[in-house]
């Protein structure tokens, strides 16, 4: 039996053994650990490709599978588990996956034509799954928008090295206007956070 259940009223995961909500920093740590593991796997695929123990076609198939599995997992975590996934939410996942697969096709073409060095191949393969954090964060924004929330806060990760964009993007936004995670200069490596605070309004301090 699953240890955690989703609370629709609190929009948080609940530890079924204690009845306590999972802390947001704990959930964020789990997400980042999952993302790091996924990134290491895709980097390893590129290493196998570089070593010629994997064909380009096999690399593309394996990468596409990792992308699909990762995006599905991030969406389920954002919306409250597989039971919370609806047809429209799976459609959103499909759009996220389609965008990534488009990038993968371009990457594969560049690999075949020799435009990518071995080191670049490993780095870029890892970046596909580094973007899963952005997928998770942006799905949570869609979840909260669906629930009727109007304002959110975009905050800096205090432990991250920030690009020049992110400090300027921090602040309170109407939920439909908050800059998506991953849209700043640091791209897939962005670890800024969208915070859903009770009572947040247009007049709240940035």
Task: Tell me the radius of gyration.
Answer: 18 Å
- SSE string, helix = H, strand = E? EEHHHHHEHEE
Strand order of the largest sheet: 4-3-5
| Number of DSSP E strands | 5
Question: pLDDT under 50 segments (min length 5)?
Answer: none
Strand content: 5-15%
- Domain count, please report it: 2
| CA(first)-CA(last) distance | 42 Å
Which geometry do the CA atoms define? Answer: globular
What do these coordinates show?
The protein has a 3-stranded antiparallel β-sheet. Strands 1-2 form a two-stranded antiparallel ribbon. The longest helix is centred in the N-terminal third of the chain and has 27 residues, at 24-50. A hairpin with a 4-residue loop joins β1 (4-7) and β2 (12-15). It contains 6 helices and 5 strands. It folds into 2 domains: 4-148, no CATH class; 150-206, no CATH class. The protein starts with a strand and ends in an 11-residue tail after the last strand. The chain is mainly α and 206 residues long.
Kindly list the characteristics that best describe this protein:
2 domains, about 55% helix, mainly alpha, about 10% strand, 6 helices, about 210 residues
């Amino acid at each position: 039996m699953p240890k955690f259940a989703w609370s629709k009223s609190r929009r948080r995961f609940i530890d079924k053994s204690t009845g306590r909500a999972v802390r947001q920093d704990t959930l964020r740590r789990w997400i980042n650990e999952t993302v790091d593991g996924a990134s290491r796997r895709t980097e390893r695929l590129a290493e196998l490709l570089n070593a010629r123990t994997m064909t380009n076609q096999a690399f593309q198939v394996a990468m596409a599978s990792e992308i699909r599995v990762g995006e599905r997992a991030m969406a389920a975590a954002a919306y409250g588990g597989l039971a919370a996934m609806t047809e429209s939410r799976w459609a959103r996942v499909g759009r996220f996956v389609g965008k990534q697969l488009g990038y993968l096709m371009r990457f594969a073409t560049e690999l075949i034509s020799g435009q990518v060095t071995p080191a670049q191949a490993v780095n870029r393969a890892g970046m596909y799954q580094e973007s899963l954090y952005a997928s998770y964060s942006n799905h949570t924004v869609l979840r909260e928008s669906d629930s009727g929330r109007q304002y959110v806060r975009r905050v800096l990760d205090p432990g991250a090295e920030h690009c020049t964009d992110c400090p300027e993007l921090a602040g309170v936004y109407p939920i439909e206007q908050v800059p998506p995670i991953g849209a700043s200069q640091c791209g897939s490596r962005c670890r800024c956070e969208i915070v859903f605070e009770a009572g947040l309004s247009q007049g709240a301090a940035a």
